Amino acid sequence: MIKIAVSGAAGRIGRTIYKTLIGSSEYEIVFGVDAFGASDLPYPVYKSFADVTLDADVIVDFSSPSALNDILAYALGRKCRVVLATTGYTEEQMNRIRMAAQQIAVFKASNMSLGVNLLASLSKEAAKFLGEAYDVEIVETHHNHKIDAPSGTALTLAEAINSVRDNSLVPKYGRHGTDCRREKNEIGIHAIRGGTVVGKHDVMFLGAGEVIKLSHEAESKEVFARGALRAASFLMDKATGFYDMTSIIGNFYAVTTVSAEKDVALLTLPSIPFADFLALLAEIKKQDVNLDMISQNYNADGTAAVSFTAGQKDFVRIKEFIPAHLAQNIVLGAGKITAEGAGMEHKSGVALEVLSMLRDLGAKIYAITTSETKISCCIDEKSLPAAEAALKKYYGIN
Q1: Which residues have a catalytic role annotated?
Q2: pLDDT tens, N- to C-terminus, the chain (398 residues)
Q3: C-beta separation of 17 from 2 below 8 A
Q4: What angle do CA 97, 127, 190 make, to 5 degrees?
């Protein structure tokens, strides 16, 4: 049972956490802290952490930046983990948080929704793909009680996009006046406040004759409560360190898809001039054959060592273009096992996990290719079913 302390216990999300955990066998709220107090909650609520005499495993904070010193003093004194879901921290406060993370485990996110963090990832990919020809604007909408503007999530989205644009974009917070023509290097950030909107974020890429919009809307505060509790669980085996939502994505979503392919052929060209390899690819293209798992490196004599896979039926069509003296470097009847997931980008050691499992199964590994989000292995076909089952079981994939 994870013992939770709720900071901001009387607030909207503080109360949502309480309702979410009714009947929970995994979490227990041992106390709350709220500057305004709360007598209607079934656990003690203190006005300051300085008044607390109880222990907790994790503080989940949905209060305000002004509470940070109080929270960190308690956490550092009792070696308590902290989940910070509050936005609006100053740079000085952020430095204080990072220093605290050298002694305790701290998790901070401007938005605890996994969907919002996926939005950030998709926005980065769109910004990379579309480039400077598209203007970027962010519009966020929240309820009329939200204090800070723009939202911390909007700023996080802007930072994510700017990170793939060489940090060349300058934030423009709203527009007003008689001459508001857009500068090329701007990223517009706009805030709307009204009603009971839980949270909505739109990222727009505006080009010549078209607009691409990525959106996320939270329909319930429960999504933030559950995200914070997931962060609390994530911290339980951490003693120190500074973590964020990418840490969870990397930990829980490193591999989300495992696929297996039969009847794969592997060709290895241990020594071929690179120009000749390009000529070979040109001939293969004429046959309308797609190659896979292409890997290449240079030998000491300047030639290239190249491997690639293709479907076995396709391989028959291209075999005539392969130099005769390399025919012995062909593996037929192989298989390909692929593990893929967005979280790989944020978690180290996935390749080690996959390769270790294949080794333990006795699989013969002929070739390996990797990217930030995928690892593919060409293996003997008889090991393919066991490899697929083992990887799916390990990564919890049905």
Answers
A1: 142, 146
A2: 999 999 999 988 899 998 989 888 899 999 999 988 888 899 999 999 999 999 999 999 999 999 999 999 999 999 999 999 988 899 999 999 999 999 999 999 888 888 888 898 889 989 999 999 999 999 999 999 998 899 989 999 999 999 999 999 999 999 888 888 898 899 999 999 999 999 999 999 999 999 999 999 988 888 889 889 999 999 999 999 999 888 887 777 788 899 999 999 998 888 888 888 888 888 888 888 888 999 988 989 888 888 999 998 888 888 777 767 665 688 888 999 999 987 788 788 899 999 999 999 999 999 999 988 899 999 999 999 999 999 999 988 87
A3: no
A4: 65
